[in-house]
Amino acid sequence: MYENILVETYGAVGLVRLNRPKQLNALNSATLRELATAIAAFEQDAAIGAMVITGSERAFAAGADIAEFQQTSLAELMKGLRADQYEVLRKVRKPLVAAVSGFAYGGGCELAMLCDLIVASDTAKFAQPEINLGIIPGGGGTQRLTRQVGKYLAMEVILAGRVLSAWEALQHGLVNKVVPVELYLEEALELAQTIAARAPLAARLAKDAVNRAQDMSLEHGLGLERSNFLIAFGSEDKAEGTTAFVEKRRPEWKGR
Prior knowledge:
six-stranded mixed beta sheet
């Protein structure tokens, strides 16, 4: 089905690998479209509880496809097709884990930040170098990076081209963990499998509350949390979870 990605499943985890090795997994329109399609399919698959997006050891994604950008007109960009693919990923309700090694530049950094958790290899490098092309980040980089690392470091990355090492990214809260390069995908899959084993409805509700917390006042965020808590409390999974706990057995989640 796909020319630019590889799709696999590991139990309850869906894995999508960017697969444009000659271009260091640069994100052209076709790749973004295929990625959004694959993730949307996993989103609809009841057997999948979490997803992992990765590239190769050398490059998660080295940015947008500059050759395609050179040939793209303003009118074409204004149609918003690339933005539409990012929106598909942003609106995914199941947890998304990025497994990042090597270059995560430009659109690659933005793609990683779209995910809910990031596992980085010790060779990972994060950057937003769009200013070198006379443009600015257009896939959420100015907003998500600022929220994660703060205004001043984000300014240095975006205006001066500073590259963050994996350890710097960890220090500033951009990634969850840094592991040796030979283990980064294994760690990401293990993390995703741990999440996929949890109650599906509760995981979606918790993800929604955490993600929206950044855009709300504390008062409104607490209101949303309360609302999502009540939905979870009234679910079949809550009844199963509490019963399984009392009976000292593993719960059998229904996702409802």
